[in-house]
Amino acid sequence: TTFFNEYVCQIKSIQHIELRALERGYLQKIYVDEGQTVKKGQLLFQIMPLIYKAEMQKAKAEVDFAEIEYKNTKSLADNNIVSANELAMVKAKLDKANAELALARVHFDFTEIRAPFDGIIGRFNDVRLGSLVEEGDLLTTLSDNSKMWVYFNVPEAEYLDYKTNLKNNNQMKVNLKMANNQYFGYEGIVETIEADFNNETGNIAFRATFPNPERLLRHGETGNIVVKVPLKNALIIPQKATFEVLNTRYVYVLDKDNVIKSREITVGTEMPNLYVV
What we know:
Elements: E1 2-20, E2 25-30, E3 37-38, E4 43-47, H1 50-78, H2 84-109, E5 112-114, E6 119-121, E7 132-133, E8 138-155, H3 156-165, E9 173-178, E10 188-193, E11 203-211, E12 222-230, E13 236-238, E14 242-245, E15 248-254, E16 260-264, E17 269-271, E18 274-276
Antiparallel strand pairs: 1-8, 1-12, 2-4, 2-7, 3-6, 4-5, 6-8, 8-11, 9-10, 9-12, 10-11, 13-18, 14-15, 15-16, 17-18
């Protein structure tokens, strides 16, 4: 027969990140809403870019000036009018101007906050149009729910049983019972087991991965992981055929002389209306 072990679990998105402002400024535009599905590279927020745009234009003008100066100096150097050292100094000045332009462009790009991957926008963190945001302020979260990581803790003895019964490096398959007591429609695979046991609880953490094509599961949900455990050569009796005295469970048996006697039993596993002795 088979029985099922259940473990309380926590459900996490395969990717769940915080989106923060990388520059200080006023929030000029919000292009998405809470709970909206977005694509990788999609523009989410726009911080007012006027200062950074002006800095980039200034840096671009300095690059143009340095390029003209370099071309003139190179022409003179080719005709041996100026030294090679002077040409090298002008070239260094041009390289510095290009670096400052690249830095200004980075700051300007930081005023546009884009989605780093496909996902679902979380709750806005008190940000509205016109809000002044500081560098590092939390705007919202982004979750990739295409797959879900489900974490659950397993006692040491059951961990050893699972590892012993898995052969040829097969992966352990599990099911998920959601908060409404309904089973999730897809089977999960235990891909990772934590390295260390928790000495306080005697448990070790497992992580199962579930596909989530309909995006039914969301980050932060809870549920129960259900693990199917096979039993071989099991002796199974109805629970109502037993009785209990002082926390010890007994059953009536017939001896070789057909005399009824009570005998103490040890329950290995409890199933609905049944005991495995």
